Amino acid sequence: MESLTKDSLSELLNEPTFEKFDLFLKENAGESNSIDFKGEWIDFHKLAKIILGIANYGGGCIVIGVDENDNGLEANGIKEKIIDHADFTKKIAKFFPEGLLDNIQLKNFFYCSDIYAPPLKDKKFQVIFIRVNTEDLPIICEDNGSGIEKGAIYFRRGTSTEKINYDELQNLITRKVEAISSKIDNQALKEELDQLKVLNDAIPSSISKYGFSSLKQSNISLSILGKEQNKIYPEKSFEEFLVDMINKKQKKIEKYL
Q1: How far is CA 78 from CA 60, 89, 219, 233, in A?
Q2: CA 181/CA 40 separation, integer angstroms
Q3: Does the CA dihedral 34-38-41-46 come out positive or negative?
Q4: Closest by alpha carbon to 257, among 211, 198, 189, 202?
Q5: From CA 45, how far away is CA 30, in angstroms rounded?
Q6: What is residue 93's DSSP assignment?
Q7: Is the pTM here over 0.85, yes or no?
Q8: DSSP code, position 215
Q9: How many Å from the N-terminal Cα to the C-terminal Cα in the chain?
Q10: Which residue from 53, 80, 97, 128 has the highest number of Cβ atoms inside 10 Å of its Cβ?
Q11: pLDDT for the residue 212
Q12: DSSP string, 55-66
């Protein structure tokens, strides 16, 4: 069931459609490191702390309108109030680095149309999507609030959000370093491939059998043309040099794979 939950969460994060949200609720077993459920909106200081914890874990979502109890999940919908995206962003902004706010989005899932069937019909849900780049971790709290401290790093442990411990921080830093290294390697590989393409494009795929470029610059051919050989001219032709460079470049690229 856990793998199904991860798959449905990944699909929902990548494509937050009504159908994917419905599937996510059906396959979900409950709260986890990357998922939190709230029956109604809670205090924004507490909410910011949970968002920070999920962000540092690697991303996920908070679903508003779903209760979790001993019987499992109950998709009752939001009954008290709906929060506007601009108001939501304004109330949590002070706790987050400015660049991260673009990765925290609030989306509405209102099943008010007749095309929807029970149990979701006529119910309203809101989902906070938290997407982060691993190389941007850890994300540090930017302000003080009720139950939340400036300078603290929060992390998810199952269904709770706590200050990060030493082992969790070490693991997070390792993930960050690996992500940055991979990004650098990918960028370097792209540059190598771009250079290889330039070299390949410099050599025509076909040439005329009787064109000048197909003639060897031998003493005989030069005498026919009324020219003498340039003693300092490279032994290899330009095309032969390019072929050597292409072979070397291909070997270098293989090291990235």
Answers
A1: 20, 19, 90, 81
A2: 41
A3: negative
A4: 189
A5: 23
A6: G
A7: no
A8: S
A9: 34
A10: 53
A11: 44
A12: HHHT-EEEEES-
Instruction: Give the residue among 74, 65, 70, 38 at the shortest CA–CA distance from 54.
Output: 38
Query: Residue 100 contacts by C-beta under 8 Å, 6 or more apart in sequence?
Result: 55, 132, 136, 139
Check residue 255 and give its pLDDT: 59
Question: How do strand 60-64 and strand 154-157 relate by DSSP bridges?
Answer: unpaired
Quote the CA–CA distance of 214 and 76 in Å, as a whole number.
Answer: 79
Give the length of the chain: 257
Alpha carbons within 13 A on the beta-carbon side of 192: 19
Token digits of residue 189: 């590989």
- Among residues 65, 127, 64, 128, the alpha carbon closest in space to that of 100 is found at 128
Token output for 112:
């008010």
Q: State yes or no: cis peptide before 138, omega within 30 of 0.
A: yes
Q: Which residue has the tokens 């008290």?
A: 80
Q: Any idea which residue has 């149309």 for tokens?
A: 113
Pick from 116, 103, 50, 43: which is nearest to 77 by CA? Answer: 116
Question: Mind spelling out the 3-state secondary structure of 154-180?
Answer: EEEECCEEEECCHHHHHHHHHHHHHHH
Series of mean pLDDT values for 10-residue runs along the chain (257 residues):
64 91 86 93 96 95 91 90 94 90 93 86 95 90 95 93 94 86 69 72 61 50 59 66 71 60
- Which residues neighbour 71 within 8 Å (Cβ) at sequence distance 6 or greater? none
Contact, 172 vs 52, CB < 8 A? no
Tokens of 149: 């401290």
Q: State the Cα angle at 130 between 133 and 80, rounded to 5°.
A: 170
Strand 60-64, strand 35-38: pairing: parallel
> Using CA atoms, how far apart are residues 228 and 225, in angstroms rounded to an integer?
9
Contact (CB, 8 A) for 82 and 65: no
